[in-house]
Amino acid sequence: MPSNSQAIVKKSLSKPSRSLVLAVFAPVAALVALPAFSSISTDSHYQRVATRETLVTAYCPCKICCGGEANGITSTGRNAFRFTGVAADPTAIPYGNFVRIPGVGFRKVDDTGGAMRQSWRKNRVYHLDLRFRSHEVARKWGRKWMKVDVYEPLF
Ligand SMILES: [Zn+2]
Question: Which domains does the chain have, with CATH numbers?
Fold first, then answer.
């Protein structure tokens, strides 16, 4: 691994193109890509930094949930249909952190929304919006207060 790999990884993380990362730095890309799947433990490359009582609501990428301008791309440039993830106020829980939601597993913070920002900025309430592919599943989730673990990347 070249000595400047750290800087390259950081640069790559901010780009939406995963295929480029995979092509150039396959071993590093594996670390970045794997935790997107809820069954993978993030213990070795992420550290738990907090456990917080959190309001967890749910959404899907549709225009009902995300407004008429919704294009299926999250605020961090991810395909909302392809990737699991959660929306948060990034000033409360930064983009790229993972959360572990009881009964759900690990999800990456990759999106935001007005309700999450309002909860945090007005009421100092940690609020996550959990993304599902199905509008019906999201509706059925409702609103739950849960103890959520927050994980930061180690690099
Ligand atoms: Zn929806």
Answer: 5-36 (no CATH), 46-153 (2.40.40.10)
